[in-house]
Amino acid sequence: MTSTHPGVELADRQGRFLEMRRRAAGDATAKPAQAEGPWIALSRELGSGGSELAVQVGAALGWRIYDREILQAVAAETRREEWTLERFDEKAVRGFGEYIAPFIIPTDPGQSRYLVDLTRVVRRLGREGRAVLLGRGANFILDPTHGLRVRAVAPAADRAEALAHDQGLTRDEARHRIAASDAAQRDFVRQAFQREIEDPAGYDLVVHPRALGLPAAVAAILAAARAKLDF
3-class secondary structure for 113-134? Predict the structure, then answer.
């Protein structure tokens, strides 16, 4: 009998997610290997200039850029409404919320199911190649030998100033929004991938676009991608 205690229910869901990922990996090894890449997975801190960086890198290479399009693809492939997946998009979930959500929203898939679907979509985009994938743990999902993993960073004060300017916020509002975004991304990566988002071992290149300037940051990524991926 499955326990209805929220903490146990969340553990059950996480356990099912890990088991589904193990089965997916087993299925992949039983089939002929499919070529993957090249791709660039770009993780970015809010206000670092990472989104603009992705646009310019994609334009320079003539590659598709996938940001919210990843969430849209998960929704389309699972025939769910995007809004039912929003609470999982680069966010961790808490035990009680994960337990009670399906009773409030019958179509809510739960985080474990969403992460399996996200993994499938990201791997498909990685196989298609010639893609710049923004966030969502793509650098932890894909085989790093077939792509370049980049992290765009900047000091929190610089990010707050840029965000306040770009979105018409007060400095305090921008600081709070950045702190919330940083915490959400950190918790998501820990919960979904058991990794630390700031760990440099998760990336091939860490860049500071606002210090370097976008042209220099783009040039650094292109040089690293061509050197690593030989295209």
Answer: HHHHHHHHHHHHHHHHCCEEEE
In 3D space, the residue among 205, 13, 11 whose CA is nearest the CA of residue 110 turns out to be: 13
Cα–Cα–Cα angle for 137, 143, 144, nearest 5°? 85
Long-range contacts of 186-191 (CB under 8 A, 24+ apart): 187/91, 187/92, 188/90, 188/91, 188/92, 188/137, 189/137, 189/140, 190/92, 191/14, 191/92, 191/93, 191/111
**Residue 86 DSSP SS3:** helix
Find, among 207, 163, 136, the residue nearest to 46 by Cα. 163
What is residue 93's predicted lDDT score, i.e. its pLDDT?
73
For range 136-156, the mean pLDDT = 96
Average pLDDT over the chain, rounded to an integer: 83
Distance CA 97, CA 86 (A): 14
Whether 8 has a pLDDT exceeding 70, the answer reads no
8 A C-beta contact, residue 86 and residue 155: no
Rounded Cα–Cα distance for residues 220 and 212 (Å): 10
